Amino acid sequence: MPNAPIGEFEIIRRIQERASSHPGVILGIGDDAAILRPPADDAPIVVTTDMLLDGRHFTLSEHGPEAVGYKCLAVNLSDIAAMAARPVAAFVSVALPRQDAPSIAEGLMSGMAPLADRFGVCLAGGDTNAWDGPLVVCVTVTGEAVPPGPIRRSGARPGDAVLVTGPLGGSLLGRHLRPEPRITEALELIKRAPLHALIDLSDGLASDLVHILDRSGGLGATIDADAVPMHPDARALALRSGRPPLDHALADGEDFELCLVVAPEVAEGLLASPPAGVSLSRVGTIESEPGLRLRRPDSRIEPIRLKGFDHLASEE
Ligand code: ADP
Ligand code: MG
Predict the structure, then answer these.
(1) What integer pLDDT is reported at residue 313 of this predicted model?
(2) Ligand 1 near 12 CB (within 6 A)
(3) Annotation: CATH topology of 8-145
């Protein structure tokens, strides 16, 4: 039997019960709009939004609403981290399948609320609809910039070092559902070092690094094949796909690690004594010659050709 019908107001009331507070949020759920406090010292406000669709970004019947809720908030927090900002308020708009609207709403909240609490984000509003279509979740998160941020994609310079915060590849084996937003890492890094460019790895290191290169005026980069930190999942997936693990580390999406670009001497300092709890690897160098290249362990250099999200042809 389907759940007893619970109206939109009851769903919102339950969500409100789970929402925590934040000094930056004067008024959260319950009025026509939320009221946010202007950040101290005129710090810029950073805003990001992501819409996730059942059947495209997740499969509700397979993953369940708790995992979906977690992921929808986590990917937004990852974008806030990618600006080196501190998250403040989250807004969650949902189109719920009518059949199970209340239990899906509950499940989404069970995934989101602990994550919001862990990163001190206040669930400050949203919109709730039920319909005969699939689940759609749209999350918006605001954040406060931390000086000298926000850090954009556009500040890379030739000679800079390219670093990543963790092992890459194979997230499809399950990690993609529970990404750890690198908020803490980003805030540690911006405190410690002048960051030239920053991005979170949602499409894969190769594609996302190209975003930095493009936004930084058409630069290039060489990635060192043996310096790319390989996640065990990249090796596991390689056994299934028949492709080299490095392909997975470079091209798989949804790692949600950070990729940062810093001056070479800054990279040396960071690698010699990384901020507490931050794992860093130097994977390559920014160059003035446009294009993305791979340096093999035998020093042979070959172009990396991006062939869409799930295939990267870098092999001979
Ligand atoms: P209105 O009709 O004025 O748009 P709603 O009834 O849609 O107001 O929303 C009432 C309050 O509940 C608002 O503060 C809104 O931000 C909040 N809200 C609605 N849905 C959600 C949700 N899914 N998550 C968090 N807050 C929500
Ligand atoms: Mg409304």
Answers:
(1) 42
(2) yes
(3) 60s Ribosomal Protein L30; Chain: A; (3.30.1330)
